[in-house]
Design goal:
Elements: E1 2-3, E2 8-9, E3 21-23, E4 28-33, E5 62-68, E6 76-94, E7 109-116, E8 119-122, E9 126-129, E10 133-138, E11 150-151, E12 154-155, E13 167-171, E14 179-187, E15 198-211, E16 220-223, E17 226-233, H1 236-255, H2 259-269, E18 271-274, E19 282-289, H3 290-298
Parallel strand pairs: 1-4, 3-5
Antiparallel strand pairs: 2-5, 4-15, 5-14, 6-7, 6-13, 6-15, 7-8, 8-9, 10-14, 11-12, 13-16, 14-15, 16-17, 17-19, 18-19
C-alpha cells in the first residue's frame, strides 16, 4: 500500500501538477487530507466563497494528485473508499454571505466541534454521530481544477453518501487520471444549509480500479444496495434535471427498458437528493435501489 507524504496544493492543481505518487489498478493507498479550515486562523478573514476575492484563499487543501498507471482519456476509474478516519479539532461555520439563509446570517461565525470518543461534539456539548465523508473526489479536468466547483469529473460535489464503503465511478480526462481528494467531514447532511459540515482533517484509505475503454459522462456512486447517478447545473432545478436525465439514460442502458417506462419507474422508486449548498454549480443525485435494477434487467 502506498502512503502519501503531506503534500497539498492549495487551489492549484492542473494536468501539469506533479503527482504525489503513482498506483496500479487494484492497489490501495492512503492520503492525509486536510480540513477546509485547517489553515484558517480567523473565519472573519475568509472572503465570500466563489468570488474573485476568495481565489487563492487557503480553503479545502487538495491531497494528491494520484497518478493511475495506464489510465487514458476515454477510460474510467472506480475509487473504493475503504476507510475515512476523521481526527483533530473539527469546526463548523457560517461564512460571509454564503449558505441558504445568507441574507439573514451574513456575518462569519465559527464553532468548535471536537472529534473524540466516537462523536463530533457540536460546540463541545452536543454529541453528533460520526458520518465521515469526502466532499471532493475527483479526476483532473482537462482545463485544470477550478476550486470548489463540480462537474463530470467529480470535484467538490458534497454528497453525503461518499463515505467508507462507497465506490465512486469517475471518467478519465487526462493521462494518469490524476485523482485527488479534499474537503473531509466528520459529519455532514444533504443540502448543507450553511455550506459547511463538521470540517476536519482525515486519513483516507482507498483502492482504485482502472476500467479501460469504459465511457462515462458523469460520476456514479455505488453505496450499500443502491446506485446513485449525479447531475450538475447552475441551479437546483437544472442540477436535478441533469441527475434525472442521467439516471434514466443509465437505467435504460443497464436494463434495456423503454425510456418512457424507465422515467416513470424512477419517479416511483428513485430518491432525489441535493448535495451542495447554493453555489455557481449545484450537484444532485438520484438514488436507485439495486433490487429494482436487477428486477428490470431480468424482466
Amino acid at each position: 500500500m502506498t502512503t502519501a507524504d503531506k503534500r497539498w496544493y492549495l487551489f492549484d492543481v492542473n494536468p501539469s501538477t506533479p503527482p504525489a505518487f503513482e498506483v496500479a489498478s487494484g492497489e490501495a493507498f492512503t492520503l492525509e487530507v486536510r480540513g477546509a479550515f485547517a489553515d484558517v486562523q480567523d473565519i472573519r478573514t475568509v472572503p465570500t466563497p466563489f468570488t474573485p476575492a476568495c481565489d487563492g484563499h487557503p480553503l479545502a487543501p487538495i491531497a494528491g494528485p494520484v497518478r493511475v498507471r495506464g489510465a487514458k482519456p476515454g477510460d474510467a476509474i472506480v475509487v473504493e473508499l475503504l476507510e475515512i478516519t476523521p481526527h483533530g479539532e473539527g469546526k463548523t461555520a457560517i461564512l460571509r454571505d454564503f449558505g441558504v439563509l445568507r441574507r439573514e446570517f451574513g456575518e462569519p461565525w465559527a464553532l468548535s466541534c471536537p472529534v473524540k470518543d466516537g462523536r463530533a461534539w457540536f460546540g463541545g456539548r452536543i454529541p453528533i454521530a460520526l458520518n465521515p465523508n469526502l466532499g471532493t473526489v475527483s479526476t483532473m479536468p482537462t482545463e485544470g481544477y477550478k476550486p470548489a466547483y463540480a462537474g463530470p469529473y467529480g470535484g467538490d460535489f458534497d454528497q453525503k453518501d461518499v463515505r467508507a464503503g462507497s465506490r465512486v465511478h469517475l471518467p478519465v480526462m487526462v493521462d494518469g487520471a490524476l485523482l485527488f481528494f479534499a474537503d473531509p467531514h466528520a459529519a455532514i447532511s444533504d443540502g448543507i444549509i450553511t455550506g459547511t459540515g463538521v470540517e476536519c482533517d482525515a486519513t483516507v484509505r482507498a483502492r482504485v480500479e482502472l476500467q479501460q475503454g469504459r465511457k462515462l459522462d458523469r460520476p456514479i456512486l455505488e453505496v450499500d444496495d443502491t446506485v446513485q447517478v449525479l447531475g450538475f447545473g447552475p441551479t437546483v432545478e437544472l442540477a436535478t434535471e441533469d441527475a434525472a436525465r442521467g439516471a434514466v439514460e443509465w437505467f435504460v442502458g443497464r436494463t434495456g427498458m423503454d425510456r418512457r417506462e424507465a422515467y416513470m419507474l424512477l419517479s416511483i422508486v428513485g430518491e432525489l437528493r441535493i448535495g451542495t449548498s447554493p453555489r455557481p454549480v449545484m450537484a444532485a443525485r438520484l438514488i436507485i435501489p439495486r433490487h429494482v435494477i436487477d428486477a428490470a434487467a431480468g424482466a
